[in-house]
Amino acid sequence: MSKDNLTAVLHGIEDLRLEQCPIPVISDDEVLLAMDSVGICGSDVHYLEKGRIGHFVLTKPMIIGHEAAGVVTKVGSKVRHLAVGDRVAIEPGTPCGKCELCKQGSYNLCEGMVFCATPPYDGNLTRYYKHPAHFCYKLPDHVSMEEGALLEPLSVGVHACRRAGIGLGSKVLILGAGPIGLVTLLAAQSMGASEILITDLVQHRLDVAKELGATHTMLLKREETAEQITERVHKVMTAQPDISIDCCGAESTTRLGIFATRSGGVVVIVGMGPAEMKLPLFNALAREVDIRGVFRYCNDYAGALALVASGKMNIKRLVTHHFDITETAKAFETARKGLGGPIKVMIHVQPRDTNNPVKF
Ligand code: NAD
Ligand code: ZN
Questions:
Q1: pLDDT tens-digit series, residues 224-239
Q2: Is pTM, for the whole model, over 0.90?
Q3: Cβ of 253 below 6 Å from ligand 1
Q4: Which ligand is in closest contact with the Cα of 344?
Q5: Does the Cβ of 92 fall within 6 Å of ligand 1?
Q6: CB burial class (10 A; 0-12, 13-18, 19+) of residue 107?
Q7: Helices then strands, each counted (H, E), the chain
Q8: Which domains does the chain have, with CATH numbers?
Q9: Which residues of the chain fall below pLDDT 70?
């Protein structure tokens, strides 16, 4: 095994460095992974620019990255389901497993959660990374390492659609066609939605949504009010949406979600916007529109993997840019400045396709 453990470490605001770190030593229930693919998430960019997200504050250097897949190179003595050479997707959060929320199955809400690249915990944009084996999901040969990394955002979409109660024939409005809006679109289709309208301010993202099978796309103008857009949405769809999923987090989109949803429907908020916003709650209560939050995912990885493995989901369409780990700075510049219209920027820790038995 090489001693090279080149790692992307965020030291502070605008201070992301590539440096050598010690190769981690695993415990009995962990695996050591040779990292392969790591996607850049909006939150990684946010930590780089602001050094914090809400109450998660960067106070010491932190390895960045959490949308990832790697190859098992060492196995702890108690690990039964994985072997050296297995290609795995990494669910980046490890809950305590002991608290009431964990016991009830809502482990995403565990207060003791250790989550990659959420201060103070390290992420996995590095050559060698250790992780609890039970949060590693073995990939079938025909699922690429990149797709493995994409299971992370896809799991957010699956969780959002489960929270929304999407089922056969659901009519769905998705606000925002960024990576999260697009994975939500894919998950909603798979779960039986019959009509999906997706909105954004950027046409090329809507074009991708259309390509992925959105039934309608709608370009919004910043000056339009939520009430005006609601009228447009109701004209385009065959009926008022049963479910609206906000994947932007802007006050205007959350307001739109509430106004546009049919009486008795559900609004799900995935986008992380300002801590407080002005919302038409009377409108929601008088029409019994339920408003539900989404925080990451919980027992969603296996379903997300099954969907991708079925071959019916074109998740890899989301990846628009590829960089080597040595080009991490350029990869982040591309993601944050929108250079070349990126949707998902993928960083390859090993040359692309090294670990894909089937070429993609
Ligand atoms: P993104 O910024 O790439 O995408 C957001 C999209 O919304 C963009 O395409 C943008 O053009 C569009 N948009 C912005 N303002 C708009 C407006 N007023 N009207 C219409 N469209 C508008 O981000 P992303 O990676 O897709 O993530 C989306 C949101 O989801 C972010 O707020 C992110 O923090 C959040 N998120 C939440 C969770 C969770 O667990 N709840 C997990 C991951 C991401
Ligand atoms: Zn817990």
A1: 999 999 999 999 999 9
A2: yes
A3: yes
A4: 1
A5: no
A6: buried
A7: 10, 20
A8: 6-138+314-348 (3.90.180.10), 157-293 (3.40.50.720)
A9: 360
